Give the backbone structure.
Amino acid sequence: MVSAKAGAGKSYYLKQYIQNYKKIYKDNKVYLMSESNTDKLIDDLVKRIPLDKFVESELEWSDIPDHSLLAFDDIDCLENTKENGFLKKKLYHLMNSSIQNARKKHISIVQTVHCATDGQTTKVMLLSCSSFVFFLNSVSIQHKNALNKYLGISKENIKKILSMKGRWVCIFNMTPMVIMGEREIYILGSN
């Protein structure tokens, strides 16, 4: 999960993530579902799934090809209305079922959001994510809650993380937990 307010650098980070993914997994496809119709930064790297086609096709996680990356970009900004076929609800259903079943098909998932903690909407991603990225120039109470309540990081360690230099921080949610910024990396709990 990559979380920040608009303009903080989520799209640029997503571009770098996809480029690195494609370096490692040269033959794998990258599929994008996005709130925006175009994004010059990443359009040449992905196969975009138009949201109107998504609603018509009733795409399920099992339809996603094996060995691929599924990117959800700013879908938290979408409306969820009868007129658009309850698009947001369907996208979150696809994302959550993909998260729960991705290992079976070697599918990786990345999501960019403005709102890090949005109740049931973000719960599955936060509880299942292998990494959580946020931008130091846009830290909110939601980011602190995600770090504390979902990732189990103490308030003392959150202060240490927030004092890091650089633009972004990535928390690798593993044992032991690894904290990586642009200029430093450390294992949580080590000196």
